[in-house]
Amino acid sequence: MQITCIVGARPQFIKLSPFLKAAEAANHDVRIIHTGQHYDDEMSDAFFRDLEIKSPDLNLNIGSNSQAVQTAQMLEGIEIDLLKNKPDWVVVFGDTNSTLAGSLAAAKINIPTAHIEAGLRSFNREMPEEINRIVTDHLSDLLFVPSDEGMINLEKEGLADKSIRTGDLMADILETFRTKIKENILDKFGVKKGTYCLLTLHRPASVDDYDMLCWMIDQVSQTDKTILFPAHPRTRNAIKNNNIKIPNSIKLIPPLGYLEFQTLQAKAFAILTDSGGVQKEAYLWKVPCFTLRTETEWTETIDSGWNTIVFPGKGNLKKAIEDWEKPNAHSNLYGDGKASEAMVNELYRKSNP
């Protein structure tokens, strides 16, 4: 079976790693198209090294641009490759422009597509990611769903017949790399276990608006913990261009490789983020998460008590942290760490009815 995987951003590299290993272990031929959406060493190459992923077969080197231009360039490059190589399946991951372009290019030339991390909904149409994931779910032939909530969303949209609850690839990869976590990495950043918060900010709603970014920084600085802040290039540019002063309690550090970032998550007092995937990783590490957004796709983490929404511009992060109480339970929300095997087996079954 020939599979073409289309990725372009850090969260997708993470999900690709266990899927690739499972597919190759089953002797399937996997081709990787990297759109180049995340393109520098810290955001791309370092992840391929850390996650032990083979080099992409094709890198489109799209880079940054407007949503329309970026998606259009991806569509053109992906279509050329798919017409040339004619895979049995195209596999796309998550909710980026790379996912939208991959599913659309494949659908136009009648190549079956599987969407990994299907069924997520924020119900906020102002998020580009929400549009991407809805369109991809409806275009795809097979939907691999990480959570019960995702299955409910897809059933409501009439997509239950092509949806399979597999669990989440991030649970797979954490099981693989859990033993590789090295606490001495904390020494590099001058912190000790449980004494710091880890912060990530990258969404346009968080960093493109000057007043909102200032609110975020102010809220974070009011906590009584050291803040480690591996800044996304978009965020770093917004801070620099707006001459925003970063308080001494916030340590601005470069983007991190996979293992370093997982170590900092696993050993943190709490995680502060506007990311989707980081919320889920925090849950898997049993670390409290405080999400600086108006909503989340991972509603089960809220329901479980391990994640708290802090409404941008209105919430009180310090109070939310102080009021948090550790839940009595931690359910297996995202599967048994064998989602990748289930996905590969289902692709093969569909190809050989």
Low-pLDDT segments, ≥5 res: none
Q: What is the strand content?
A: 15-25%
For this structure, the quaternary state is: single chain
**How many domain units?**
2
CATH superfamily of the largest domain: Glycogen Phosphorylase B
DSSP E strands, number: 13
The CATH topology of the largest domain: Rossmann fold
What is the spatial order of strands in the main beta sheet?
3-2-1-4-5-6-7
Give me the strand/helix succession: EHEHEHEHEHEHEHHEHHEHEHEHEHEHH
Instruction: Write down the overall mean pLDDT.
Output: 93
Shape: globular
From the helix content, strand content and strand pairing, which structural class follows?
alpha/beta
Query: In CATH, what is the class of the largest domain?
Result: Alpha Beta
What is the tally of helical segments?
A: 16
> How widely separated are the two ends?
13 Å
Give the second-level CATH assignment, the architecture of the largest domain: 3-Layer(aba) Sandwich
- Describe the sheet with the most strands: 7 strands, parallel
Over the alpha carbons, how many angstroms does the gyration radius reach?
20 Å
Helix content: 40-55%
Q: Would you mind describing this structure in some detail?
A:
- The protein is α/β, with parallel strands linked by helices and 353 residues long.
- The protein has 2 domains: 2-168 and 335-351, Rossmann fold (3-Layer(aba) Sandwich), CATH 3.40.50.2000; 182-323, Glycogen Phosphorylase B (Rossmann fold, 3-Layer(aba) Sandwich), CATH 3.40.50.
- The protein has 16 helices and 13 strands.
- The protein has helices spanning 10-25, 41-50, 67-85, 97-108, 128-139, 148-156, 169-177, 185-188, 204-207, 210-221, 233-241, 258-266, 277-285, 299-303, 317-323, 339-351; strands at residues 2-7, 29-34, 58-59, 89-93, 113-116, 142-145, 163-165, 196-200, 226-230, 250-253, 270-273, 289-291, 307-309.
- A 7-stranded parallel sheet has the order 3-2-1-4-5-6-7, with helices on both faces. The chain has a 6-stranded parallel sheet with strand order 10-9-8-11-12-13, with helices on both faces.
- Helix 4 (97-108) links the parallel strand 4 (89-93) and strand 5.
- Helix 4 runs parallel beside helix 5 (128-139).
